[in-house]
Amino acid sequence: MKLLKTRPDWHYLVLVSAILFVIEIINVLSGRWLNQFSIVPRDITSLPYIITAPWLHISIAHFGSNFVTLVILSFLLLEFGLKRYVLVSLLLIVSTGVFVWTFGRTGHHLGASGIVYGYFGYLVLAGWLSKRIWLALISVGVVFFYGGLIWGVLPTQPYISWESHLFGFVSGLFFAYKLRNHK
After folding, report:
1. How many CB atoms lie within 10 A of CB 36?
2. CA distance 117 to 49
3. What is the span of the domain harbouring residue 125?
């Protein structure tokens, strides 16, 4: 049994990473001009920004903290297959964004952390539900190494979108359950 797939699915992860980097560079050079395309809850004009908000970050530190975890969890999610990775990613972007837009605090919500928490939730549950040893081991590893993320769903800091974390995590769990028999 090979531990990692031999298909070059990780090439897609390199592409997504490059896009994130290019957007961050443009955002830095423009004085964070792109951040106007973030989610402002219940503001109808920001509804389309559900799609753009996960690609934007408030600072280089914010970008870095999201980027590293996003890449690692994406790599692990690719073990479920490229189609599943794309499907889960799109579902998380939309569901997390809609929930934040509907229920979030007033302010600008942006960053990939909602997707990070969605991947975390998905990976915690999907491996167990798959009944495949390798994927269950991924679930155990994610809980062991990233279990501390769970505290991020609590409103502990005023300028951090804990709503994105919470809704991402819950959406990830939901999609792990709903897609458990989906090929």
Report:
1. 13
2. 19
3. 10-178
SS (H, E, C) the chain: CCCCCCCCCHHHHHHHHHHHHHHHHHHHHCCCHHHHHCECCCCHHHHHHHCCHHHCCCCHHHHHHHHHHHHHHHHHHHHHCHHHHHHHHHHHHHHHHHHHHHHCCCCCECCCHHHHHHHHHHHHHHHHHHCCHHHHHHHHHHHHHHHHHHHHHCCCCCCCCHHHHHHHHHHHHHHHHHCCCCC
Looking at residue 72, what is its pLDDT? Answer: 95
In a domain, 112, yes or no: yes
The answer to whether residue 22 is domain-embedded is yes
Distance CA 169, CA 152 (A): 10
Q: What is the CATH number of the domain that holds 47?
A: 1.20.1540.10
5 in any annotated domain: no
**pLDDT at res. 9:** 81
pLDDT tens digits, residue range 144-155?
999 989 898 888
Distance CA 172, CA 96 (A): 9
In whole angstroms, what is the distance from residue 4 CA to residue 134 CA?
10
Count of the separate structural domains present in the chain: 1
pLDDT in tens, 156-183: 888 889 999 999 999 999 999 999 987 6
* 176 alpha-carbon distance from chain centroid: 14
Sign of the dihedral through C-alpha 16, 33, 113, 170:
negative
